[in-house]
From TrEMBL:
<keyword id="KW-0479">Metal-binding</keyword>
<dbReference type="Pfam" id="PF13510">
    <property type="entry name" value="Fer2_4"/>
</dbReference>
<protein>
    <submittedName>
        <fullName>NADH-quinone oxidoreductase, G subunit</fullName>
        <ecNumber>1.6.5.3</ecNumber>
    </submittedName>
</protein>
<keyword id="KW-0004">4Fe-4S</keyword>
<dbReference type="GO" id="GO:0046872">
    <property type="term" value="F:metal ion binding"/>
</dbReference>
<dbReference type="GO" id="GO:0051539">
    <property type="term" value="F:4 iron, 4 sulfur cluster binding"/>
</dbReference>
<keyword id="KW-0408">Iron</keyword>
<dbReference type="GO" id="GO:0008137">
    <property type="term" value="F:NADH dehydrogenase (ubiquinone) activity"/>
</dbReference>
<dbReference type="InterPro" id="IPR009010">
    <property type="entry name" value="Asp_de-COase-like_dom_sf"/>
</dbReference>
<dbReference type="Pfam" id="PF10588">
    <property type="entry name" value="NADH-G_4Fe-4S_3"/>
</dbReference>
<dbReference type="InterPro" id="IPR006656">
    <property type="entry name" value="Mopterin_OxRdtase"/>
</dbReference>
<dbReference type="Pfam" id="PF01568">
    <property type="entry name" value="Molydop_binding"/>
</dbReference>
<keyword id="KW-0411">Iron-sulfur</keyword>
<feature type="domain" description="2Fe-2S ferredoxin-type">
    <location>
        <begin position="1"/>
        <end position="78"/>
    </location>
</feature>
<dbReference type="GO" id="GO:0016020">
    <property type="term" value="C:membrane"/>
</dbReference>
<dbReference type="InterPro" id="IPR017900">
    <property type="entry name" value="4Fe4S_Fe_S_CS"/>
</dbReference>
<keyword id="KW-0520">NAD</keyword>
Amino acid sequence: MLTVKIDGVEVKVEPGTTILEAAEKAGVHIPIMCHHKNLNPFGACRVCLVEVKGSPKLMTACTTPVADNMEVITNTEKLQNIRKTLIELLLINHPLDCPVCDKGGECLLQDLTYEFGVTKVRFDEKPNNNPVDHTNPFIERDIDRCVLCGKCVRICDEIVNVEAISFINRGVETYIGTAFDQPWNCEYCGQCMSVCPVGSLNNRVYLFKNRPWHLEHTETICGYCSCGCTVIVDYEDNEVYRIKEDVDKGINKGLLCAKGRFGYELINSTERPVAPKVKESGEFKDVDYDGAINIISDKLKSVVEKYGSDSVAVLVSPRLTNEEAFLAQKFARDIIKTNNVYSLETADVLPDGNYADVESSDTLIVFNIDITESNPVLGYSVRVAGRREDSDLYVFYPNLTPLKRVASEFYVYKPTELYKEAEKLLKALDGENNEYSELADKFKNSEKPVFVFNPYNLKDVEIAKQISEKVEKVKLVPAKAKNNSQGIVDMGCVNGLKPGLVETEKSFDLREGIEGDKIKALLIFGENLAVKPEYFDIINLLNDLELVAVTDPFFSETAELGNVYIPVATFAEKDGSFTNFEGRVQQLNKAVDKGVFSDRKVLVDLMNKFGFSVKDDVNEIRSLIEEENPLYKGIDWNGGLVKYPYRIKDGISAEFSIKGDGEYELYPAFLRLHSGSYTRRSYDLSKVYGEPLLEINPEDAKKLNVNENDYVTVKFGKDSYKFRVNIDKKIPAGTAALPKDFKETAPLFFEGSYLKVDLIKHI
Ligand code: SF4
Ligand code: SF4
Ligand code: SF4
Ligand code: FES
């Protein structure tokens, strides 16, 4: 340890610590502008200059490492004058439009101007007056307000790894822009905007809607994917104005993706009903909440009396909290007395590796998933490992992804070839000499091998299982899809498993139950079954059931097929917990109230109607969970990692299959902006990606004689489907990618996830 004195305060620090870090430890404030703790030291603004005893030169605190017995002085008149002059220089051309700048009130330049008492501008220069750039759908760029701290450029390069923006020109001509002023080649993550200390990069979804000092803040967990990012919900009068990160909080370390950051408009959506609805003579009419609960409970009682308990089924969505999912299965099992609890989630695969394992991995394989799109913040961790000199990243996928920039090797294969290559890799792991021998040796002999894969593709799960048997130290990372994909499994909401993964005596198949006319009443908590390809053929049979009660924040396609609908809260409107892909349980905190109840309240009220006494209280429900779920006994509900009994179930076996005999191999695309029914409700996300696009290679586009945005007919067997095309050279010729989670694509993907189709220009 080194001993350093900062303004007379002595601290002991590790070698390599900067003066700035040592000062923080000593509780001494040094002003900064271009420094960010998650970025490489830059030393551009000089605002952090300090005096070091014995040194004739001033030093930048953010870049200078301390030496043993160093004495630092941070606050002399000379230093303050220099800092003041630096701020004055920054203000020479800076438009003083603070009253109309969205950054007003949380701008570092404003704060430093105040701190150093800059009351006059001594230089006689005119403020810049360049046009404001609105070519990025989410980020406004006003180069006149830029102080050239470089944080945006560095975060886009060092962490996001996209390099969408850079310093353009030199000297006084320098500005932040895109290469040749082309449109932003951007992931819309908003990371650049989040680190901009001034009003140069602004959130367009929030722009001019509120002032920061009016906003209240609640820390909670993102309600989109299973990364489990900590978000700060900013709101006033129950209206959410923006979602932000906190660099000091959460597993995401201040990073978010486009969905998490900009996709919050669904919470405020005017399309959200507040009154429950009941179908009468084919028409829905609004009823009050108690009326809806009475109708559901009365109907359930009569169905159970007439047809028995097993005529009822409960379907649970991974959007529910752990507490809600637990109550849903308890209602089915302990009150209705049926094991017919179902979800579209999987317990074949359970969490194993975590973020730290991924980031510190020395050999990492990402197999058949575009992790940068499906789980963007996990994607950043993969990029961290990929960038490290002492680690190697190998990616197998049907098209190039942003991981290409950091991968040691990126194997692009058509789906039919991809699995043959995987077989070769498995054989190489068994000692066969082939083109993957080197990779196999490295992977097997690694200290920290990691395998990231798609847990919903059974063949991929089987491959992961084999990998785990052949590579002793491997950590598996199943990239689960939704915010509580794992939690609802743990809470006993997948077929055949009770809370704590305890097996039930009987299993249940929803399709069989509906097709075989065994199910007469179906309670659907949050799931939008009607857009799921797997149920496309039987979804209309819901009309024949005696009761289909649906809860959802929106009156979904599934709700339309039901006979009772109760609008419920989104993630920002409730307390509880989610369990992320790592198996980490995290606390959810209610930020706003939109005048609807949560699924938790609906379940508590239904249970009470059946004479079961339980309070709508998160802590009380957690006590019940801890009593009945051994995995959650004594868990820390805000950050605890669940210990799972297995990683991949035994006996998983699957064959890759591709149906059809067309010329093009069609495979499901992963989308950052869309992954389900929530994202389509956020206006700005939908503006950027409003309909499912068929991605094809430029060569194929030429062959088909189509241009960007033209329509193409996808022919599969006798059926034809029409989609707009997106021409992208990352898609290999002879293949086409299409997102699966749209109601328009559900009928096609009902045939299978991988299809051989024909493409014809649509006229
Ligand atoms: S939004 Fe993300 S990808 Fe786009 S420029 Fe900013 S940091 Fe880079
Ligand atoms: S746009 Fe913002 S973050 Fe980027 S260099 Fe300018 S002031 Fe810094
Ligand atoms: S990565 Fe997932 S959890 Fe994180 S902000 Fe994006 S959608 Fe939300
Ligand atoms: S904060 Fe140290 S040089 Fe900018």
